[in-house]
Amino acid sequence: MDCLKKSSLFSLPFFLLYFSIILSFNNGVNASHKVFPGLQSTSTVDVKNVHRTGYHFQPPKNWINDPNAPMYYNGVYHLFYQYNPYGSVWGNIVWAHSVSTDLINWIPLEPGIYPSEVFDKYGTWSGSATILPNNKPIILYTGIVDAKNTQVQNYAIPANISDPFLRKWIKPDNNPLIVADVSINKTQFRDPTTCWLGQDGYWRTLIGSVWEKQGLAILYKSKNFMKWTKVQHPLHSADGTGNWECPDFFPVLLHGTNGLDASYNKKNIKHVLKVSLDVTRFEYYTVGKYDTKKDRYIPDKTSIDGWKGLRLDYGNYYASKSFYDPSKNRRIMWGWANESDTVNDDVKKGWAGIQTSPRKLWLDPSGKQLVQWPVEELETLRENKIQLMNRKLNKGDKIEVKGITPAQADVEVTFSFSSLDKAEPFDPNWANLYAQDVCAIKGSTVQGGLGPFGLLTLASQNLEEYTPVFFRVFKAQDKYKVLMCSDATRSTLKNDKTMYKPSFAGYVDVDLTNKTLSLRSLIDHSVVESFGAGGKTCITSRVYPTLAIYDNAHLFVFNNGTETIKIKSLNAWTMGKPKMNWSFGHSSFR
Q1: Which position among 66, 345, 397, 487 bears the catalytic label?
Q2: In this structure, are residues 467 and 486 in contact, taking their beta carbons and an 8 Å threshold?
Q3: Domain limit, last residue, from 323, 346, 374
């Protein structure tokens, strides 16, 4: 099979980055609610397709952000999401609505929710869906009632429950259901969670907020879903974390990969609390215990609240929302990946934002963290499989993977090595740095011992551009630390200092007894979603190459460490395009 080509890494630019990337307060991308009054209704005539994704969810044009109220109902998956019908920056937000029977091929419908009433005249922001015991869906969402950004919680119900697509939604006159009292910051009071039914017969929901830099998951309860009362204390809070957006709270089994309904609360489970931190623009979560008698959530001692805690994704990933899928007994997570280029770029190209691939998630057998993996339906798009087995990579080697379309691909690779002896010492001065900072110091071109090794994605032929996704193993006192990086610093030749090109990174909590590490990357023109060690660590990067586009993109496997690495197995596929019948839907998508 003539799909492999071997050469040397010594042609790569070789220098050490003597700086570390400081964690920015907005993750290098614009906040989802940043207003550009002169641009939010500027519609492009000529949509630029060069960096548009092939198999990720995105409408033909304009701005999208948070996934809202995903649900499975009567055989149909529903995805609502924040959408600007009139431009490619945030503003004019409505709840766009698409449906699918397989999570891959989608049909767009008219917007499900949009500003129209006194209780949401100034905005219809994020929310969640709940399936009531009589099999009737209901949506809770945040409405903006005035120019001062006062936020309230409203509900919407299907106009016709017999419509299989639930095209039209109505907002009854008894809205809003929940209004902030004097103890709550009413301008940061949003994003109600999926509700859960307690054993006491009361429904509960969480709303994200902040009080004097203390992040809050404010708890409300209701007997009839219409009259809600604030519990005296939040379900959970954490000092110094800032505003909590898009909270998510759900149970997970201690063993196995099956998902659970939000109301499940029996033995052998833990609970997960996820929050989106407005300050950092990253997603954090803890694993812990839900005390139903006290209505308190207590994170495990191995889970840390805030900036040093676990992240769902260590890259460009925000405002995620999960739901329980009873058809396959699993929990699925949707997330939003904003652009990393500039607002002016977004206006010129006529679109901004994508939804990342839907991910199944479950609790790792250790009980300490979540595991995420692209839903199995994504594999139906695989074409032109190529395979590579038992190939050695000495220091400086790279192998080109041919026979697929590297700009739109799915790659799974397992690396092995014979010894851990060459793992570099972990500098004690790095102990207080984020993984992202260490990756900026120890990039893919910095020769090491055990690593760096991995993939060079969206690469130009002569490596003027590339986005490496790689591992590097360190020896720290009596244990090994595995660093996983997705480094966008060399992803484009475009000379724009305002473009965000970070060295995203996270540590992988993995047992190296078998001396193997696995990596999967979903590559799609301007996005690289990577899953390390079977989904223990996930990183999403947005990149904008100028040379490595379409058929000029290449894919390499590389090693730049002194320890020889074996490609134990590599499977790669071209990814086909889903059926997105946008012409079927509302005129704002056309």
Answers
A1: 66
A2: yes
A3: 374
User: Do 548 and 494 share a structural domain?
Assistant: yes
Residue 66 annotated as catalytic: yes
Here the tokens at position 465 are: 């551009």
How far apart CA 103 and CA 579 sit, in angstroms, is 11
- Interval 445-472 mean pLDDT: 98
CA distance 270 to 79: 27
Rounded-to-integer distance, Cα 67 and Cα 113, Å: 13
Identify residue 440 by its one-letter amino acid code.
Answer: A
Which residues, 6 or more positions from 513, have their beta carbon under 8 angstroms from its beta carbon? none
Residue 502, preceding peptide bond in cis (omega within 30° of 0): no
Residues 336 and 423 in one domain: no
| Number of domains forming the structure of the chain | 2
- Contact present, 27 and 329 (Cβ < 8 Å): no
Which residues are paired to 337 by β-bridges? 354
43's torsion region: left (phi>0), alpha (psi -120 to 50) or beta?
Answer: beta
428: preceding bond cis by omega (within 30 degrees): no
Do 339 and 459 sit in the same domain of this protein?
no
Task: Collect all residues with Cβ–Cβ distance below 8 Å to 28 and sequence separation of at least 6.
Answer: 281, 340, 500, 502
pTM: 0.93
Give 580's DSSP letter. Answer: B
**What pLDDT score does 586 carry?**
52
Provide the 8-state DSSP code for 106: B
Residue 524 is which amino acid? D
Q: What is the DSSP string of 28-94?
A: TS--TT---TTTTT---SS---TT--SSSB--SSEEEEEEEEEEEETTEEEEEEEE-TT-SSS-S-E
Rounded distance, CA 587 to CA 373, Å? Answer: 34
Are 367 and 511 in a shared domain? no
Of the residues 374, 393, 413, the one at which a domain ends:
374
Tokens linked to 71: 């649900």
**460 in any annotated domain:** yes
pLDDT of residue 590: 45
Distance, in Å, from the CA atom of 57 to the CA atom of 386, rounded to the nearest integer, reads: 26
Residue 11 vs residue 282, higher pLDDT: 282
Lowest-confidence pick of 28-37, 258-267, 484-493, 566-575: 28-37
Least Cα distance to 469 among 542, 532, 389 occurs for 532
What is the C-alpha separation between 107 and 118, in angstroms, rounded? 31
Question: Do 359 and 412 reside in the same domain of the chain?
Answer: no
246 and 309 housed in the same domain:
yes
The whole domain housing 514 covers 383-575
List, in order, residues 6 or more apart from 382 with CB less than 8 Å away.
Answer: 410, 573, 574, 575, 576
Distance in angstroms (rounded) separating the CA atoms of residues 207 and 354: 25
